[in-house]
Amino acid sequence: MHKILAFSLVSLGLSACDHPTDDSPSKIINMESKHKQYTPANPYIFEYNDIVYSLKAGQPQDTSHIKFKNLLKKIPSNDNNLDILKTKRKVLIHLGCLKEAYIVTQKILNKTDSSQLQEMQCIFLRKMKKDAHEIKECYEKTAHSYLNEINLIPKAAIRYQYALWGHYAAMFHAGHIEYKDKLQEIVDYHHIEDHKRTYQQMYENILNPNVFQKRLDAIPYSPDCP
């Protein structure tokens, strides 16, 4: 079991953020949904947070793994409760149960649009070494999701550039190599030092297959899950 779920969308250069080298699992999941609201009907999120906090505080990995497995057994099979599905997904990712996490994520996507969650589906497929055609289709679907998001964002908004980057990056990962130049255009567009450095780092991460593979290798994956 990896000490901390070491997978960052930002580090892979697939999504924009101000911290391109942060691989903390809690940050990963928080980046996917900064504005989530949890209702009292989902007590499992509190137990999940306690486990993550203890893990970050130095709790033995094996102990955390057992606690995550026990929590997973408690979570009901309620496909109608979006909050419970989101919590179950988090637990599955920590356990390395990517096949199961993929299925749960799809149930979430059937209920709500999320370009970042759709993007994570492609990462799961790559980690599980699925068929190249299936991965290509996933990235093209992700690009389309980002495009829908772009159409709803004013061009002056900071989020517009983030979504545009996500669209271009997904197309590039789908095999449309001409989008490499479009990614470079976004890097060149930014003149504020911090912003430019962030995008430049993401660009290098995308173009450097060794960096991408290193991040991919850090994702826990257990083909046989509870």
| Biggest sheet record | none
Average pLDDT, to the nearest integer?
A: 84
Distance between the ends: 15 Å
Low-pLDDT ranges: 1-28, 33-39
> What's the total helix number?
11
* SSE-based structural type: mainly alpha
Range of helix content:
55-70%
What oligomeric state do the depicted chains represent? single chain
Number of strands: 0
Shape: globular
- Indicate the proportion of strand residues: under 5%
Order of helices and strands: HHHHHHHHHHH
Evaluate the radius of gyration.
17 Å
Explained architecture:
By secondary structure, the protein is mainly alpha-helical. It contains eleven helices and no strands.
Which descriptors would you attach to this protein?
single chain; 226 residues; mainly alpha; globular; disordered N terminus
